Amino acid sequence: MKRIKTIKIDADKCIGCRSCEAICAAFHTEPKYSGINLRRARIRVFMDEGNNVFVPIIAGPYTDAECNSRNIMVINSKEYGECAFCRASCPSRDLFKEPDTSIPLKCDMCGEPPLEEPMCVKWCLNEALTFVEREEEEEEEEEKHGPNFIVTAYDVETKDIRKALQDMKVKVRSVKAI
Fold first, then answer.
1. Of the candidates 45, 67, 93, which has an alpha carbon nearest to the alpha carbon of residue 174?
2. How is the chain split among helix, strand and coil, in percent rounded to 5?
3. What angle do CA 156, 54, 128 make, to 5 degrees?
4. Which is more confident, 131 or 90?
5. How many of the other CB atoms lie within 10 Å of CB of 157?
6. Looking at residue 94, what DSSP letter applies?
7. Neighbouring C-beta atoms of residue 136, cutoff 10 Å
8. Counting Cβ atoms within 10 Å, is residue 27 exposed (0-12), middle (13-18) or buried (19+)?
């Protein structure tokens, strides 16, 4: 067993304040804290204010190909495309790309060596983001998610987000690519 630290997201607690985005962007500006360009943030809050849906999404690995399939998430009877919750930087959208160079961004848990607690977690006033340590078997691929939580780290794939949404009783269905 190995112990890894991850950021646990409780979407039920997120109020869409975006302080996690602001502090992440400021931390990753050169020199540090000299400005805030939200496009530099390694975390984005998916927001649908009219339906009171706020889901923090942490930048994951880059993919050089677009998805072959599209899924639709249904939350409170409203449909959302899977791209809204995708962690990857990919050719089909501009999310999670460095604004000056278009280099893909990925959560670095706030640098090397990692901080004791990532800045987004430290600045989350509602505790929607928490930094937790968990044990994982080294060859284990499937992770267990509790209800109402999306567990993420910079090495977790999109399929885990889909499973976490299903655990939250969010209807997920696949549709053919357009």
1. 67
2. 20, 30, 50
3. 65
4. 131
5. 15
6. -
7. 14
8. buried
Residue 134: Cβ within 10 Å count:
15
Confidence grade of residue 56 (pLDDT, cut at 50, 70, 90): very high
Q: What is the pTM of this model?
A: 0.72
* In the chain, % of residues over pLDDT 90: 41
Structure tokens at 19: 């302080």
Q: What one-character-per-residue DSSP string does 103-134 give?
A: PBP---SSSSSPPSS-HHHHH-TT-SEEEEEE
Contact yes or no for 9/46 (Cβ under 8 A)? no
Name the more confident of 73 and 55: 55
Q: How far apart are CA 70 and CA 178, in angstroms?
A: 8
Q: How, if at all, do strands 78-81 and 171-176 pair?
A: unpaired
Which two structure tokens, joined as six digits, stand for 6?
């991850």
Q: What are phi and psi of 164, to 5 degrees?
A: -65, -40
Backbone angles phi, psi at 159, to 5 degrees: -60, -30
Q: Report whether 9 contacts 150 (CB < 8 A).
A: yes
Residues in the chain: 178
Arithmetic mean of pLDDT, 63-80: 78
Distance between CA atoms of residues 69 and 61, nearest Å: 18
